[in-house]
TrEMBL record:
TM helices/strands, residue ranges: 12-33
Keyword terms: Heme, Iron, Membrane, Metal-binding, Transmembrane, Transmembrane helix
Species of the source: Cognatilysobacter xinjiangensis
Protein name (record): Cytochrome c
Magnesium among keywords: no
Domain annotation Cytochrome c: ranges: 87-170
Amino acid sequence: MRNYDLVFLKKFSMVIGFLSVVTIALILAALYLNGVLPAERDPAMNRITEQRIAPQGAVYAGQTGAAQQAAAAAAAAAAAASQVAYGGTTDGSVIFGQLCAGCHGSGAGGAPTLDRAHWAARLPKGTDTLHKHAIEGFTGTAGVMPAKGGNPALTDEQVIATVDWMLANLK
Ligand code: HEC
């Protein structure tokens, strides 16, 4: 072989070697970037997701959604309040007026009214017993007292407060 052929081969293999290194570096860089960048989502999937979250998304869509947001908040508050009778009040007069007075106002079904005479035989039982009978219900000689006046959504505290209010307002 002539001398300048050897020189050419040497340079040529150096260039090939350098290009191979560049190729491998590019492949590795591409693999790395592919792992780092977020995967592109199928536009059809995006459409389906948007449709699915539209009801909630609309509520928070700025000014246009303000009305729905207020309506949703009001609905949530109403749902929460309906879990607790009369908004959870322990004001006996409110609960008595709205529920117990149905029987205890008129004496319907033998219910004792707020007339002190109707309570002469009941007061000696003790307040605890009267609380218990109002919460659990009571059937005596006069008639049937339904548990919690027939509204199981009342808490024990609400019933107790109402009985106390009744006893404090006997005439
Ligand atoms: C469906 C009618 C009715 C409603 C509603 C009702 N009661 Fe009565 N309640 C009665 C009757 C009837 C009696 C008398 C039972 C008896 O002594 O035979 C009575 C008795 C009672 C007594 C006396 C229990 C005893 O041991 O003597 C208390 C206290 C009482 N009710 C509290 C309440 C309270 C508080 C409410 C509302 C949360 C209420 N009631 C709602 C019908 C009712």
